[in-house]
Amino acid sequence: MALRRFFGFSDGELMRSDSKPCSRLMRHTAGIFTVGGALLFWTFCKTHY
């Protein structure tokens, strides 16, 4: 959610039914990077502390 605002997208803009495939791909990519970043951060914290 914060990442979407960081990229300049609002939730309404991304959730439109007539959204183009490129914005849909952008949403999937942002979701993958969010999950991947959270997993990396969690593993880093587990190994570091």
TrEMBL record:
This is DUF7875 domain-containing protein. Keywords: Membrane, Transmembrane, Transmembrane helix. It comes from the Eukaryota. Pfam families: DUF7875 (PF25285). Signal peptide: none annotated. Residues 1-49 form the DUF7875 domain. The chain crosses the membrane at residues 25-44.
